[in-house]
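Researcher: We plan to redesign the surface later, but first we want a full-length starting point. Tokens attached.
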């Protein structure tokens, strides 16, 4: 019998592993979240990313509120097997603030400030109810 996807992943003491999501076409890092064994299994089974919310203490499907799902193309682990990399195609945007990537701010040491550089692709007030 072959090993399951989660057999080689090293989950932390809380049963979680960091998961980085990268755009399949461009390589841009879209977001980082945490997965437990169940969310990783669901990600593999459904082809859509699922995560574990530490603040809400529950599983969630990326895009369950916005419809901005991530379609999984490949799943990787790093050399220590303690970080997962998901390569996916993103529907609309990954960030709940309206940006394509959650990493839309860059530190500018010369001015000692954060600068927004990312692409804002939707208005969150039109997608999420208050």
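Model: Full-length starting sequence:
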């Amino acid at each position: 019998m072959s090993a399951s996807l989660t057999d080689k992943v090293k989950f932390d003491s809380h049963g979680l592993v960091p998961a980085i999501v990268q755009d399949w076409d461009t390589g841009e890092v879209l977001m980082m979240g945490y997965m437990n064994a169940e969310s990783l299994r669901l990600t593999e089974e459904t082809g859509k990313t699922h995560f574990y919310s530490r603040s809400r203490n529950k599983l969630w499907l990326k895009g369950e509120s916005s419809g901005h799902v991530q379609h999984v193309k490949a799943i990787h682990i790093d050399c220590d097997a303690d970080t997962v990399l998901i390569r996916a195609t993103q529907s609309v945007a990954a960030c709940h603030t309206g940006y394509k990537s959650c990493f839309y701010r860059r530190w500018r040491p010369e001015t000692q400030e954060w600068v927004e550089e990312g692409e804002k692709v939707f208005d969150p007030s039109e997608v999420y109810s208050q």
